[in-house]
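Q: What structure does this chain adopt?
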Amino acid sequence: MKHVVLVCSILALMSINVQAQNYPKKTIMEIMNIPADSLLAGSLNAPTVGDTVIVRGVVSIPPVVNFPDDTRKIMIAGNRNYAIYLQDQNAIEFAGMPILCDTSNVASNFVRLKKGQLIEVVIRVTAFPINNKLGTTQGEVLSTGIVEFIDDEITLPTPPAALVSNFNSGKVTAATYNVASGSKYVGMKVEFSNLIVSSLVKGTNQRSTIILSDADGNEIYLRDQSNHYRTDAVQLGTYTAPTEGTKIKKIRGYISTNNIAGQPVPFMLSPGMPEDIELDMGSAPPVITSIRSTRAKAFPASSETVPIAIGIKQGALPVASVKAYYSFDGSALDSANAQKVNDTLWTATIPVFSAIQNGTALAKWFVRVNDESGLSLKSPLGDTTGFYYRILDRAPKIADIREKLQANGGSVYEGYSISITGTVTASASDIPNEAVNAPRVYVQDAITPYSGLFVRTTSPSSVVRAFPRGAKVKVTGIIRENFGVTSIDSVNAQETQLISTEGDAFAPVLVSTTDFARKSQGTTSAEQWESMLVTLQNVIVTDSNADGASNFGELNVVNASLYNSATESLSKMRVETDDGSSTYGSSSTSGKTVLARGTGIKNLTGIMYFSFGNYKLVPRTNADIALGAVSIEEDVISGQFEITPHPVRTTALIQCEIITVNQPILKILNLSGQELHTIETLTLQGALHSAIIPSGLPAGMYIFKMIGDAEIKTGTFIVQP
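A:
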């Protein structure tokens, strides 16, 4: 080893010594170690979370490829951070941790770090994801923090051998997390042997999620935290994700944490460098490197064929056949043989579907590759999965673009140019999003589910920024998935226009906090209202700041009937106050009026949004927030019917006046419109009819409809725990 001499950094080192003298020095093990009682409670939060300390360790993976010649990031940690992994010099458990540094802190010397350097740096210990017991520990360099170089060319220890069962039992979709045995490896580089690729899913952003399995069926995600293992445009090399069935002799990587569908997954494997994965090439199946439709339009007409391009990398044996299978509106499967263009490209064509009805049909297709041994590989994976497109002989609607054909709710038409016509429900002045100078505009063309769309206005001169709320507009641009939200960007100014200042008057859709609370991305009850104008009635603020020590301008509300109930914490949803133009917020330091816990809101209206794993309501202006005392009794429309007792706790009697010849029926629905019960009524006298609300309904708000021959009476009622 040789001592690092950085004459030019003497002043910087003096600075950190002055800055750091008030903070305790800790080893990585002292920071990362989790006591047994926390592990027993299922928590991965180290006791040091929230502390500011000086950490000492050896860089095991640097922030960039080769400073200063190649400053492309290796490990990703958000858009504004450099990331490294730091290794304890002596410990063999709790011996590694990720360290992040804001890219704007150039004085830190963080970007200069090299593998094998021994350093000290002042960090704030945090957990990711925040406010969750499965959030794992990491360090964030202070905004004024500077790295002190101690030594370099230190040989790193051999990664310890690990088993998937150390971390997860069973499939990742329903895994039992083995917190006690997995916690000691968080942030460390470990090595697995003899795994198999059990699943590979290509995301709409072209990134690949890989699931690895051991011989007992225990699974772990391979996280593409390293740009060496990305498959999109930012990848550092030519990595191709191995496909289902590929055997892996050895794989090394760091135990990391991330969200899947908005929920934290504590144990993922993040290989860092290209040499960290060693495939068993003797049994390798063919690899489908890419698969896409090369049609010109998002929605082909019934008279148009659809071409397909399939990228294939030969495995251990030559490819024998490639076929595209397809069906229309659920018909029996048909197939088309793909033709080989060259060693890596095959093409096929899905024929026209002339039996289209009502101007639309849904096509589903997939590809199957066979090698000479008979080994068969399907893409996309899974017996029932496929790729989709809708055939249209009419102009597309927003619901066509946003039709839920993927579990995560992402549009299957990403990357295609599209023109839509609708009414502006939120203008650039409604949601200026000043923090990033990127106002959000929303367009809606119906009040049915999936009828709202986010229009991104990244250009300061975008014509979209001038559209007033309520105007009827035409927007032409490219369909994108923007952090889990379907949007139109790259707006074509020549084809985008204001049609009229008076568009359709869309009333906001009535929703409930329980439709969105704790819902993962793509959950229908929440996803269907994404980017649409919605309203909540009779809600109460539960948290003036939804993020504890951090503050991202968000508060929590809950249905009034669930406030202070046993299910309050499971039923509250977020309200984003910083992006819109209201003067209410979660912090008085931003010049806004803080809405304290217990504040009643009679009507809360805004645009439904999704970010950082949560669905959130974004009020536009103060007019969207009608403060006032709320009562669960106000959830019942008076004068037309009576519910006794109300709120409902077990069963209740509902009486309603409705003129009808035949006996009316009572339907009970949830706030998403899903029918739960159909009940026969009794005639009391004249036009007065009654029915029993059954027991067993979960706590919450419900809609009822008393349906006669030519008259329907509708109202709501509350069920309390």
